């Protein structure tokens, strides 16, 4: 980010990142009008989040999921395996729905590359579930056992490579054959010793498969980048700068599982707290390295296990919030904006989660009462939400417009609000209802 980066204040860093977002390198706009539209959309979103002034109007955006594939007449399965379907499908959606951001077709992951990895923890249309299914499914499990916390603490990288990765993907089974430590010394004999694991046929076969998966992924990435560039050149910014997770969710989703982490809260809370500290520091370092390389501004968090129904407020304040708050503050101090999608209900958490840096956080709510959220978080953080998926599925356009009008009146006063749906879209969403969302914000959301 430049030799003087660490001398800048968080606000100065954020302004530099914003300017990169506002004037993306390497993008040649298709027209002066497209460039004006791009800069207007970026400024609208930034003003809503930063809380320093009202935007020209309330931004409106959606998480489209795989909807563009179905809207164009194909399926998520076909888009995952035939990359030629990606750009036409997502461009059709982009051009027909005037939202303030674009969603990348990168969510339609490369099926051929994934199959080479032989995942054990994930299924998708045509792999483990029917081709007709419209989403991915993560298969939660205890991929770290209750008695393996000390192994994680002793050597996180070794645990990840030789224990965790073989449990979640079949291709990595040969990692179990690697020695406990891969470090060596610079003597010729020592260097030669480092090659011994790679004399094992199954290890060499694994790396060849990884090369094949890498080639397949590169082909897919080229298509996704082509779309992203065309979308920006057409006047649409992306909100996607990076992704991170609440440290509690990393352990609860990917390592211990829901049952495992719930029992750990009672049976070995000290181990769990130490793991949260470790995971927090590792994630901060990893995410910042990636975002700084890409020049991103906004880091998104899907929050899974922090809602009102999963744990008590005391447990939330003990196990969930401190490590998440530390992560938020670390990112904000590096000039990032943090976007948190609070799945489920968060009404009992509102007073706790308002303790964030002002004007650098976006809270998107799925089921939380938006009026209550505005009353508590207004002036501290931007809020976003939460047109019900059921309404977008089966309501009328007039129903949608009226619901959006009420949300705008309740949450839009003084800025700090973005209109969006409560969850990602599915193929059954009504196109007319999506247009109604856009019409509502243009009719009722101007400042």
In short:
This protein is of the alpha/beta class and 447 residues long. The protein has helices at 10-22, 32-50, 67-71, 76-81, 86-96, 111-117, 149-154, 156-168, 188-195, 201-233, 247-255, 257-267, 269-294, 313-333, 350-353, 370-377, 389-394, 397-411, 431-444; strands at residues 122-125, 128-129, 137-138, 298-303, 337-342, 361-365, 382-387, 417-421. The protein has 19 helices and eight strands.
Q: What is the H/E string? A: HHHHHHEEEHHHHHHHEHEHEHEHHEH
- What percent of residues adopt helix (DSSP H or I)? 40-55%
With helices defined by DSSP (H or I, 4 residues minimum), what is the helix count? 19
Strand percentage, roughly? Answer: 5-15%
Write down the overall geometry: globular
């Amino acid at each position: 980010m430049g030799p003087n980066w660490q001398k800048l204040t968080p606000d100065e860093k954020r302004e530099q990142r914003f300017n990169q977002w506002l004037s993306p390198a390497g993008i040649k706009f298709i027209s002066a009008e497209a460039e004006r539209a791009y800069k207007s959309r970026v400024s609208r979103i930034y003003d809503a989040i930063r809380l320093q002034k009202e935007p020209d109007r309330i931004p409106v955006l959606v998480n489209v999921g795989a909807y563009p594939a179905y809207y164009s007449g194909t399926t998520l399965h076909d888009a995952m395996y035939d990359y030629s379907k990606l750009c036409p499908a997502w461009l059709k959606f982009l051009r027909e729905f005037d939202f303030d951001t674009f969603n990348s077709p990168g969510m339609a992951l490369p099926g051929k590359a994934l199959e080479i990895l032989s995942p054990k923890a994930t299924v998708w249309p045509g792999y483990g579930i029917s081709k007709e299914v419209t989403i991915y499914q993560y298969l939660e499990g205890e991929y770290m056992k209750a008695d393996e916390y000390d192994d994680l603490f002793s050597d996180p990288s070794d645990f990840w490579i030789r224990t965790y990765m073989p449990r979640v993907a079949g291709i990595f089974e040969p990692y179990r054959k690697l020695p406990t430590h891969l470090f060596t010394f610079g003597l010729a004999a020592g260097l030669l010793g480092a090659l011994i694991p790679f004399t094992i046929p199954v290890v060499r076969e694994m790396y060849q498969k990884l090369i094949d998966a890498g080639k397949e992924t590169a082909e897919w990435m080229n298509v996704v980048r082509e779309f992203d560039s065309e979308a920006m050149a057409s006047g649409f910014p992306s909100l996607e700068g990076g992704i991170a997770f609440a440290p509690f969710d990393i352990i609860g989703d990917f390592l211990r599982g829901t049952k495992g982490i719930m029992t750990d809260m009672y049976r070995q809370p000290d181990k769990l707290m130490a793991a949260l500290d470790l995971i927090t520091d590792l994630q901060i370092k990893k995410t910042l390295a990636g975002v700084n390389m890409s020049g991103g501004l906004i880091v998104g968090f899907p929050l899974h296990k922090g809602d009102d129904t999963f744990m008590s407020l005391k447990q939330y304040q003990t196990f969930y919030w401190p490590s998440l708050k530390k992560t938020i503050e670390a990112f904000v101090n590096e000039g990032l904006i943090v976007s948190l999608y609070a799945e489920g209900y968060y009404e009992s958490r509102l007073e706790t989660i308002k303790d964030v840096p002002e004007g650098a956080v976006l809270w998107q709510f799925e089921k939380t009462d938006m009026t209550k959220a505005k009353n508590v978080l207004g002036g501290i953080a931007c809020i976003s939400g939460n047109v019900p998926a059921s309404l977008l599925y089966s309501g009328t356009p007039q129903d949608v417009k009226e619901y959006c009008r009420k949300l705008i009146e309740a949450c839009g006063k003084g800025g700090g609000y973005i209109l969006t749906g409560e969850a990602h879209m599915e193929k059954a969403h009504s196109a007319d209802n999506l247009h109604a969302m856009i019409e509502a914000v243009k009719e009722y959301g101007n400042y």
